Amino acid sequence: MSENLTPEQIPELLGRFRSRKMLLMAHVRPDGDAIGSLCAAMLLLRGQGFLAEAVVNAPDIPDTCREFLPEDSLKAESEINPPDYGLFIALDSSRRDRISASFAASGEPLPAPLLSIDHHADNPCYGEWNCIVPDAAATAEIVAGIAFSADWAVSPETATLLLLGILTDTGSFRFANTKANTLRAASRLMEAGGAYSRVMDACFFSKSENMARFEADLLCNHLKKALDGRFIYTFLLPELLEKYRIELRNTEQVIDILRAIAGPVIAATIRIEAGGFKCSLRSKDRRYSVGRIGRALGGGGHEMAAGCTIHAASFEEAAQILLEQVEKELS
């Protein structure tokens, strides 16, 4: 039986597992919020005397996040023996099959209960306990709220990790998911010693020359428009990535270049990934939900930012399938 909890109720639940090891997990292809909330939650729990460990697939971590990883603290899945743990905690993973640890994503029964902490509105509450806060801009904001409500000590390292999650998921407070509570949380984290400028420099002001040239090539030669210019998209072609020596794990923010172009209301990038074509979607108008588009194609996410994987024979076929759903939404 699944139970929904508020952030204020989480510390009491965790107290039941004080004598057991906890394993924290995020989603596949982790972004700044996944990394920030995962590592910060681990440090917070350890600070309260809990036996907490975190697992992550290191090769998938974006370069912008690497300098913030707690040194020698993260486990590889090969080092994990699931029966050793009394509680599993999934952070920022909207579905169980998106958890990065394959034993948890498989759908097979786990040897211990699962707590899901997330801010995606379409999370189906797959854990025994679920703390889902759709109004939060980032899962890191929820984790910060848990710590603040319980009056847990927040170190400068932990505060910086939580700022990493909040700043990346709000595009440095540019996106529509930024609320007053988001800014209040960020303010408290800065007061706790969170390195705002360091996160900004690493995530928004340290683009490599190769990445800048790659993005310029996309803009000049590979943009596509449809539906009277209301939909803009591009393919992240393998040969283009190879030309500029860009790894897919570092392309998370490419979609924001398309979102910034005036005129189109829905933007998308399409890339090859995991036996299909991964589509990242953004909306600039609340009347049009890319979350609805993503869910129609087996994915999901937020109403203004979502994604899905399309199984098709080519980029063009995947684009046509996506185009049909975008047209439905715009109609």
Description:
By secondary structure, the chain is α/β, with parallel strands linked by helices. The chain has two domains: 3-204, inorganic pyrophosphatase (n-terminal core) (Alpha-Beta Complex); 209-330, Diaminopimelate Epimerase, Chain A, domain 1 (Roll). The protein is 37% helix and 18% strand. The protein has 13 helices and 13 strands. The chain has helices at 10-15, 32-47, 63-66, 102-105, 139-149, 156-169, 180-191, 196-204, 209-221, 238-243, 254-259, 290-296, 315-330, and strands at residues 3-4, 21-25, 51-55, 74-75, 87-91, 114-118, 129-132, 224-226, 231-236, 266-273, 276-283, 300-301, 305-310. The chain has a seven-stranded parallel β-sheet, with helices on one face. Helix 2 (32-47) links the parallel strand 2 and strand 3 (51-55). It is globular and about 60 Å long. It starts with a strand and ends with a helix. The mean pLDDT is 95.
Summarize the entry for a quick read.
Helices cover 37% and strands 18% of the residues.
In angstroms, what is the radius of gyration? 20 Å
Shape by Cα distribution: globular
Tally of separate domains: 2
Provide the spatial order of strands within the biggest beta sheet: 1-7-6-5-2-3-4
Task: Write the CATH fold name of the largest domain.
Answer: inorganic pyrophosphatase (n-terminal core)
Number of strands: 13
Helicity level: 25-40%
CATH C-level class of the largest domain? Alpha Beta
CATH superfamily of the largest domain: inorganic pyrophosphatase (n-terminal core)
**How many individual helices?**
13
Poorly predicted sequence stretches spanning 5 or more consecutive residues: none
Judging by the overall fold, what is the CATH architecture of the largest domain?
Alpha-Beta Complex
Strand content: 15-25%
Largest sheet: number of strands, sense, barrel closure:
7 strands, parallel
Structural class: alpha/beta
Order of helices and strands: EHEHEHEEHEEHHHHHEEHHEEHEEH
Q: Whole-Å distance between the termini?
A: 40 Å
**Nearest-integer average pLDDT:** 95
